[in-house]
Fold this protein.
Amino acid sequence: MRVIAHSPPKPLGAWISSIWYFEFEGLEVSHEMERILPNGAMQLLVNLHDDELRWWDGNRQSCARRLPGAALAGAFARPFVIDTAQQRAITGVSFAPGGAAAFFRGSMREFANDHVALSDLPGCGSIRDELLEAHSRSVGEVVKTWVRFLRARWSLERRCDIRNARAQLEAGVSVQQVADLMSVSVRKFRQDFAGSVGLTPKAYARVYRLGRLAGSAAAADGERDWAALALQHGYFDQSHMIHEFRALTGVTPMDYSPRSAVDWNHSVLADADSYNTNSRADARTG
């Protein structure tokens, strides 16, 4: 398995968490499916092995969704499921929450809880071909290709800096209080925040707290003390935490199985056989 994460230079670094590359070509993987937990951020995804991206919405095992191999993933407030076969060689850009608004026109809420083909977005149709050509030379060239693409799209006019508001929400400040601090109405704050992040302030705060909880659980040694984790991360009690966890991930905390301590939002799926569609079988034999 090969994983590379690159922190982009300024000014891109203020809006992008990482440019990354992941591959396991030729290696055996211990599981077939992963549940992706929401993290409140948008991503660019390019499959360098097959010209397809495939996923399942939440617990809807019978309905595989497909796009060409390059897509923009919006900010999610619910889970989706992926096939590990699609990660043989994949690269992408993880935006900071609200960061994608500096690179794409319109409201980021239009992309929420969905994937959109890059071929449908202005100026993005050739990026997969460019990355494939770069990949034939080196992973370093893949990163350089992403940086050129992002620099060409970055615009001061499009950006809306919500980083301070985001930090307040992450600290547990209420939506009303953040709006007051910004001297705007709650309605205006919700509109601006959702336009930049893709999620409403309340939805983002819930997803962010889930991420902190799941990150702590993934890093825990031995048996997890969910009651203590619930209190640590601001839930009223364990019952409240379980309700929120199930609402945002589709499973209970006890069924949460992170791929690694770092990849807390990738949970190994125990019931992979229930997603055994024709598209999965084709991927295994192709």
